[in-house]
Specification:
The protein is of the alpha+beta class and 206 residues long. It contains seven helices and seven strands; from the N terminus they run αααββββαβαββαα. Bound molecules: zinc ion.
Length: 206
């Protein structure tokens, strides 16, 4: 298994344009598409698209490591894998700005310290609300947990459908992309890796 260099967790932001500049850029794209940005139906579109961008890409303003800062030490001797599966994921590919969506399964094997379950889902959401490729998204979640929580290992699997697969002549809207990233024991020990994979593949009956 090749070991990629650590993903960039917090990209440095380019100088932020003004809201007016952002709305003007949307008008330019509308004209590029062949429409008239001044027609009645499109007058408020630049404002709505700019608002949507603020929401969809709010992850740039968040620090994922800070979400994991509050940990708990007392887990009464618990020492097995902690897995949060079926975390709903909505993101956008950095190549086409096209949406991709699916499920993330996030696990770690604690080393004394554990973190609130909602924090793990929050990490997924922060990274998803940035422009992504699925491979980087998967690695960023696992490496952030590894660095911030320092467990014995972290494991992340993402399954997603990419809208850009329906573009052009690809026309494979149902294809599912599966990516995994393992650190620590999940990377080194096939037993733990298999535990994780078996757990996420098991049907959930609750
Ligand atoms: Zn794409």
């Amino acid at each position: 298994m090749s070991k990629p260099s650590l993903p960039e967790i917090q990209p440095s932001a380019a100088a932020k344009p003004s809201r007016e500049q952002a709305e003007e850029a949307v008008r330019t794209l509308l004209a590029w598409a062949g429409d008239d940005p001044a027609r009645a139906g499109l007058t408020n579109t630049p404002r709505r698209v700019t608002d949507a961008f603020s929401e969809l890409f709010s992850g740039y303003a968040c620090d994922p490591a800070a979400e994991l800062a509050r940990t708990f030490e007392d887990v009464s001797g618990y020492s097995d894998m902690i897995l949060l599966r079926d975390v709903r994921l909505e993101s956008h590919c950095e190549h086409h700005l096209a949406p991709f969506s699916g499920l993330a399964h996030v696990a770690y094997l604690p080393d004394r310290r554990v973190v609130g379950l909602s924090r793990m889902a929050r990490i997924v959401d922060i990274f998803a609300r940035r422009l992504q490729v699925q491979e980087s998204l998967t690695a960023q979640i696992a490496e952030t947990i590894q660095q911030a929580l320092q467990p014995q290992g972290a494991a992340v699997m993402i399954l997603a459908r990419h809208k850009c697969m329906a573009f052009h002549d690809t026309n494979q809207p149902d294809a599912i992309m599966e990516t995994t990233h393992f650190t620590g024991v999940f990377n080194e020990d096939t037993h733990w890796r298999q535990r994780f994979i078996d757990a996420v593949r098991a049907p959930a009956r609750l």
